[in-house]
Amino acid sequence: xxxxxxxxxxxxxxxxxxxxxxxxxxxxxxxxxxxxxxxxxxxxxxxxxxxxxxxxxxxxxxxxxxxxxxxxxxxxxxxxxxxxxxxxxxxxxxxxxxxxxxxxxxxxxxxxxxxxxxxxxxxxxxxxxxxxxxxxxxxxxxxxxxxxxxxxxxxxxxxxxxxxxxxxxxxx
Length: 172
Hints:
This protein is of the alpha+beta class. It has one domain (11-171): Peptide deformylase (Peptide Deformylase, Alpha-Beta Complex), CATH 3.90.45.10. Helices cover 29% and strands 30% of the residues. A 5-stranded antiparallel sheet has the order 1-2-3-6-7. Strands 4-5 form a two-stranded antiparallel ribbon. The chain is globular. The two termini are 24 Å apart. The model has no long low-confidence stretch (mean pLDDT 96).
């Protein structure tokens, strides 16, 4: 089931999320619905607060392109264990800020721990787009948006555009 995506500015997007104490069928269903929502949008990552749920859950799939084989990932309580010294710049966007993009500098590689959909502890290293996406989505769980990494003027410009867009959507 597709879920409605929360749009910035919204106070839920600025809140830190609670850890998931145990994984149950309801949370697995939420993860499946988040994947469906992410693919439909289309996007490469989605965090629970973006669908109004303040729990530490993210989904992602950075396999892009026409012939790419989907590689959906579900992560409960993801945590960055270490980051590389090397940095990468990607033009980031966000499903909660449609049509808004900006270059963000982040570590090029990260090591992450999480619980999979069966509650098993997992740990892996990610680089490139996967690392950027992971950091972006984990930021959401901590109440941080990609625009929070920008200079104040650029952040204010994007926020003003979003306020205007939300006003226009409310009138429609």
